[in-house]
Amino acid sequence: MRGQPAARRAAARQAEAAPEIAALRSHLEQVLGRVSGKFALASAIRYALSRWPALTRYLADDRLEIDNNIAERANARRGCGPEELVVRWPRRRRRGRGGLLNAPRDRQEQRP
To answer: How far is Cα 38 from Cα 28, in angstroms, rounded to an integer?
Structure first.
């Protein structure tokens, strides 16, 4: 529906996506009732249900998309991926028994 007028997008979302989202919520609530609260699955479902307003916001606001692929592609063209955001610090030397900075090779030599 990208590129379509806002009224057409809203109508399509209400006709197609809203029932699917409602079914997903009821299914998640059913599964949550059957799964022990200690399982990771229960934790993931509780997380999803706590974020439900953010997930369903795009149903009411015609300007929003369900994903952010447009922004991701724009960043990819500029070379701003996750690997560029990682700060790589130089490896630190560890302190030895005497409090001096020793290379790993020196530490092996000091052991009796």
So the answer is: 16
Note the pTM of the prediction, 2 decimals. Answer: 0.57
Give the tokens for residue 68.
Answer: 């952010």
In degrees and rounded to multiples of 5, residue 73 shows phi and psi of -65, -40
Structure confidence by residue, pLDDT tens digits, 63-87: 777 777 777 777 766 655 555 555 5
Structure tokens at 80: 């701003």
In whole angstroms, what is the distance from residue 33 CA to residue 58 CA?
27
**Domain extents in the chain:** 6-85
Q: Is the pLDDT of residue 95 over 70?
A: no
